[in-house]
Amino acid sequence: MTPSASSRRFQLFSYAVLAYTLAVVLWGAFVRATGSGAGCGDHWPQCNGQVIPRAPTVATVIEYTHRVTSGLALVLAVVLCVWGLRAHAKGHPVRRVAVLQLVFMLTEAAVGAGLVLFQYVAHNQSIGRAFWMAAHLLNTFLLVGAQALTAWYAGGRARMVLRGQGTTGALVISGVSALTLLGTTGAIAALGDTLFPASSLAEGFQQDVSETAHFLLRLRGLHPLLAIGVGALVVAVASAVARLRPSAEAKRGAVLLGILYALQLAAGVINLVLLAPVWMQLIHLLLADLVWIFLVRLSAAGLAEDAPRAELRASAADTASASRAG
């Protein structure tokens, strides 16, 4: 049974919250790319021991702005959760994902606080920071994915069903897992670009392949190669899901996902050639988040309980053909 659509106001608000969260994520990347993560020292939630910093440096302004905008994002997530619970009957898919997006917003804040308190910011080159950055990216994916699903289900779509999906379920899991792995390596690669900037493409390549290269540089060289392989897998998965679950939304989602991933690959090449300028890093990250969101939406369309099943129709046709032959 397809659930009723949410009110127009809730739908608009859910998309607005998602858009604002993406903006906050990009500002967080700007904090990292500019080395401003230590702008408030190792104090959290205060900034250099003060609620409002006095005579702040540029780095302090950048970091403090991120904290303020992140605080507002948390408030919006609370409103989205409460509104989602109050405006929808039990069993409506909006309720679960609205709660999940708030949970992931809280864990996002916890990871951000951990980065500051453990001083995994600025020029820290430790392996611990790499793990924290990967965890930060993973949590961000979960957060924006849950918010994207909140907006998706607000449009009156049927909930996802994981059991009994067969090949389609396996394809979705493989695509989501591969893109998650690519995202985490991308976060580490971006950290390497920040900590070990190169003056030329040749110098950057020499940094990556040097026997004495820092582990971040070695991982940075892995990301472009992985991006090509994962791109091929994601596009193949999207095409297969659209064939196996041939709804209009799945077909449209597969096309849009392919276009977005092509743009993402192009942005990655430009980012590499231009030696990862801050503005290009932000575009690259935005496209990565959009690819993730559209993969989540495609997965929701393909695994919806009311999604048409091509393999079932084919099976029925085979059965009928066999009956006539008999």
From TrEMBL:
It holds the Pfam family COX15-CtaA. InterPro entries: COX15/CtaA_fam (IPR003780), COX15/CtaA_HemeA_synthase (IPR050450). GO terms for biological process: heme A biosynthetic process. GO terms for molecular function: metal ion binding; oxidoreductase activity. It is found in: Membrane. One of its GO terms (cellular component) is membrane. It comes from Hyalangium minutum. Its main location: membrane. Keywords: Cell membrane, Disulfide bond, Heme biosynthesis, Iron, Membrane, Metal-binding, Oxidoreductase, Transmembrane, Transmembrane helix. This is Heme A synthase, cytochrome oxidase biogenesis protein Cox15-CtaA. The chain crosses the membrane at residues 12-30, 64-85, 97-118, 130-155, 167-191, 222-242, 254-276, 282-304. It is a multi-pass membrane protein. Pathway: Porphyrin-containing compound metabolism.
